[in-house]
DNA sequence: TAGCTGAGTTCGAAAATCGAACGCAAGGGA
DNA sequence: TCCCTTGCGTTCGATTTTCGAACTCAGCTA
């Protein structure tokens, strides 16, 4: 049972965890949410090796998290990588990571970037809530039922 | 600038992403949230190689996500791995992964486990909200400010 | 005394990653 | 026309990680 078998287990947690748990994939998604879209820009800003970058982009294309979109520059047609709706839906995952990072791994100095709600200027945080009563939940409030 | 340099960048997203983005780490945390605590049990249920398991547990101990707690069995003292408060605070990350998995990677058959709020029996989901106006936010509602 | 168990450690083989060079197609300039 | 540049990969040999099986070790147990 190798690592990749978690990607095909009938578990809605192990499948995303196996996909995003590959080295570089979370950092790549971070870069995408920060606005990077082109191969050269990923390579330059992350200093990832080109072959691994190719591989990770292809995996995310295959999983339909990203799509290749043509664009024009200097009269030439090229392609850039953009989030699909499925990809955009990963936003809460990244925000949960960031919320945790702010609480537990905040560097001494200033942040490298701030996020705020366009409409009201407020801050941004991830949370877990009950779909019925809308209470905020921690691990202790949740019961696991096998099968 | 190797992979590990993201773990020390002054960015509250890249640091957690680099830590949890190592192979096996997310799957290991999933197993821990499901209740596994002992070396042998991790090894048996995940079929991870023993040396990598040792390494990942040590990294999480060092980051203070896990702690080693002594327990007694058959009159012998052993240790088990348990979440610290910092570790328990990763719950929203795992729930965000699961919420995404339920929407986009749900297997045809039944889930391997269900989660529900102890108090009211409702479902569980992760979301992103504004700290001021409490509106639910998507990537489009959020503005990134450099520095 | 010998065997068992939990929790690792060790080590040679296999796989993943790295970095530097190479390939290639489509302009642009001389 | 020929050469140069750019963006986006591919290839390849060297280095790192991971794998899997065997080994270690301490403290019971038979």
Automatic annotation (TrEMBL), chains A, B:
Family matches, as SUPFAM superfamilies: Winged helix' DNA-binding domain
Keyword list, A-Z: DNA-binding, Transcription, Transcription regulation
Key word Zinc present: no
Domain HTH hxlR-type positions: 11-109
Gene3D superfamilies: Winged helix-like DNA-binding domain superfamily/Winged helix DNA-binding domain (1.10.10.10)
Domain of life: Bacteria
Protein name: Helix-turn-helix domain-containing protein
């Amino acid at each position: 049972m190798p690592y990749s078998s978690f990607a095909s287990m009938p578990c809605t947690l192990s499948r995303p965890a196996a996909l995003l748990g590959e080295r570089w994939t979370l950092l790549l998604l971070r870069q995408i949410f920060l606005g990077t879209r082109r191969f050269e820009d990923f390579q330059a800003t992350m200093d990832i090796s080109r072959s691994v970058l190719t591989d990770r982009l292809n995996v995310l294309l295959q999983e339909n998290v990203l799509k290749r979109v043509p664009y024009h520059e200097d009269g030439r047609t090229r392609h850039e990588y953009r989030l699909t709706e499925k990809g955009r839906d990963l936003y809460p995952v990244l925000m949960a990571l960031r919320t945790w990072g702010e609480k537990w791994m905040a560097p001494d100095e200033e942040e490298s970037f701030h996020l705020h709600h366009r409409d009201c200027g407020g801050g941004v945080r991830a949370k877990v809530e009950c779909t019925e009563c809308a209470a905020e939940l921690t691990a202790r409030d949740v019961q696991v039922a096998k099968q």
